[in-house]
Amino acid sequence: MSLFSQLEFRYAVHQLADMPPDDGAEVAFAGRSNAGKSTAINALANRRKLAFVSKTPGRTQAINFFDMGNQCALVDLPGYGYAAVPRQEQARWGELISAYISNRNSLILLVLVVDARHGLMPLDRQMLTWLAPTHKAVLVLLTKSDKLNRQQADAIRRQTEAELARHPGETAVQIFSGTTKAGVRQAQAVIARHLRK
Ligand code: GDP
């Protein structure tokens, strides 16, 4: 898919003041540290090392911007919820992420990467709370689905869809695996559809 073949790293932003101009169309990826966000981005882009797959969870602290051509960007938000990160540092990321999600005009779709074995966790719900007033779209990738059987995957999908019913924007839930590539094509199609809007 051409949208994803053009991805190129552009900026790492550590503080709000350094945010690039807010004048394009952005798809942002968020998720708990170790949920599989980097692996999901690499699978969607069909690259092995575009996003850094961490050996140490919680290391990707910046907001990373990747150009996709045509004024479109993929935005990799810092993973959250890693207990070993000092509280003060976690609070700083929270401020950066909340400011981005709440205020970024260019954001058109938030992709929330969630471990399918756990489903939505409190910090994931926090992302949805920040997104809700903007009425913007969210796609939840229930990743590591290769670790579940069919019934378990269906159950977590239904449970997640029920929770998302409260979100005042468009929602989609996709069973996903960066390992088996399950759901990659479907997720690419959702993202491409939003970027064409
Ligand atoms: P991030 O911190 O959210 O970016 O997570 P990573 O992409 O670095 O993945 C965290 C760990 O989960 C790594 O050991 C990955 O190999 C593993 N992982 C990620 N996605 C999958 C998946 O779909 N299936 C399985 N079995 N493991 C995965």
Q: Can you tell me the CATH architecture?
A: 3-Layer(aba) Sandwich
Distance between the termini: 17 Å
From the helix content, strand content and strand pairing, which structural class follows? alpha/beta
User: What is the CATH homologous superfamily assignment?
Assistant: P-loop containing nucleotide triphosphate hydrolases
> Which strands sit side by side, in order, in the main sheet?
1-3-4-2-5-6-7
**Rg, Cα atoms, Å:** 15 Å
- Tell me, rounded to a whole number, the average pLDDT: 90
In total, the number of domains comes to 1
CATH-assigned fold name: Rossmann fold
Give the CATH class: Alpha Beta
The strand count comes to 7
N-to-C series of helices and strands: HEEHEEHEHEHEH
Specify the number of helices. 6
Which properties best describe this structure?
binds guanosine-5'-diphosphate, globular, alpha/beta, single chain, seven-stranded mixed β-sheet, 35% helix
Write structural notes for this entry:
- Strand 3 and strand 4 (72-76) form a beta hairpin.
- The protein has a seven-stranded mixed beta sheet with strand order 1-3-4-2-5-6-7, with helices on both faces.
- It has a single domain, classed as P-loop containing nucleotide triphosphate hydrolases (Rossmann fold), CATH 3.40.50.300.
- The protein contains six helices and seven strands.
- The longest helix has 17 residues, at 87-103.
- By secondary structure, the chain is α/β, with parallel strands linked by helices.
- It has helices spanning 2-5, 37-45, 87-103, 122-131, 150-164, 184-196, and strands spanning 8-13, 25-31, 63-69, 72-76, 107-115, 137-143, 171-175.
- The two termini are 17 Å apart.
- The mean pLDDT is 90.
- Residues 31, 33-39, 53-54, 57, 79, 143-144, 146-147, 177-179 line the site of guanosine-5'-diphosphate.
